[in-house]
Write a structure and sequence with these properties.
Layout: H1 3-52, E1 55-56, H2 66-81, E2 86-92, H3 99-119, E3 127-133, H4 144-150, E4 152-159
Length: 167
């Protein structure tokens, strides 16, 4: 093989190696972008779940318990990192008590949650509150276990939830 032919073959080999390296680099970048996208979607989903976590109350009470404040503190961090998010807070009760009493108690529960969040710096205009009274049990039954689950404040993202992120 002549020197010119050998040089030509070597240049062609170098060009092919460079093309493969570029293709590998592009593929790695594509895979990294897909992975980052999936991870961001997973984080957003986890944050959405955390915002939806309920807070429970003692019977006939609207005062927040320590575990409820802890759950709300986690929501505060998410709300601070996502200022476009608006929440609806719905207070709910177990089946005991009159309809009127339970509607008022549900309202007091939602108001207690809203007060706490506003006290932690969340703008009041980002929070809506209402009461479902005893009309929306999440657990059927007439025993303490069912009643305990039904005494709650629920959270629904009204707007600004796509995608959620943390700083």
């Amino acid at each position: 093989m002549s020197r010119a032919t050998a040089d030509s073959v070597e240049r062609a080999r170098q060009v092919e190696l460079a093309a493969r390296a570029r293709a590998d680099s592009v593929e790695q970048a594509r895979l990294a972008a897909e992975t980052a996208e999936r991870e961001a979607a997973d984080r957003s989903s986890a944050l959405r779940t955390e915002l939806g976590t309920m807070v429970h109350f003692d019977a006939a009470r609207a005062e927040l318990q320590p575990d409820g404040r802890t759950a709300l503190d986690r929501k505060v961090a998410i709300l601070n990192a996502n200022p476009a998010v608006r929440l609806q807070i719905t207070g709910a009760c177990d089946e005991r008590g009159s309809d009127r009493y339970n509607m008022a108690l549900g309202e007091r529960r939602a108001a207690a949650v809203k007060r706490y969040l506003v006290g932690q710096g969340i703008d009041v205009t980002r929070l809506d509150q209402l009461s479902s009274g005893e009309k929306s049990p999440i657990v059927a039954g007439s025993d303490e276990a069912a009643w305990a689950q039904n005494r709650r404040a629920e959270f629904v993202i009204v707007s600004g939830d796509s995608p959620l992120a943390m700083n």
